[in-house]
Amino acid sequence: MIAGLNDRMARLGAVIAATGLFCLTVLAIVxxxxxxxxxxxxxxxxxxxxxxxxxxxxxxxxxxxxxLIERNHVSVRFLGRLNWRLREMLDLLGHVLxxxxxxxxxxxxxxxxxxxxxxxxxxWLIRIPIWPLWFATSAxxxxxxxxxxxxxxxxxLRAFSPIAIADQYGEGDAGPGTEPLS
Length: 182
Prior knowledge:
Blueprint lengths: L1 H40 L6 H15 L1 H6 L14 H36 L11 H29 L23
Helix pairs in contact: 1-2, 2-5, 4-5
C-alpha cells in the first residue's frame, strides 16, 4: 500500500515538474523573441518582465516535490560513515527538519496567496491578477508536505529496522544479506 502511494505521488510530482519545466521552456523562447524584438525592431514584448517574474516562481516550486520524493537533494554524510544506524538516524533527523521547513513554507505561501487575492494585486505593467499563480504555487508547496512525510515514514522504517538495510541511494553497503527498502 505504501509503495503504491509513493508511486502515485512520484507520478504526480513528475507531472508537476514537467509542467514547471515546460513553463521555463516557454519563458526561454519568449525571452529570445523579446531580445530579438528589441535588437532588430526596437519593439520589446510589453509586460514580459511581469510574466517572467511569475513564471520563475511557479517553475522553481514545481521542481520541489519530485526532488523530495526521489531524494535528489544535497546531503553531506560524515558521521554516518561510522555506523549504519547512526547514518539512518541522522538522515531521519534531516528529513524531519525538512518536513518542518516545508510545513512552514506551505503555511506562509498560502497566507501570502490569500493576502494577494484579498488585495487584488496585479502585475505592474500589464495589470493581470497574480493570485491564481500564487495559489497554484501554494498548492505545489502544500503537496511537498505529504511527499516529505512519505520520505520521513520510509526513513523511519530504515532507521528502526532490526537489521542494516542496503542503502538504495548508492551511499555505501550495509553488509551481506541486506536488501534495499522498497
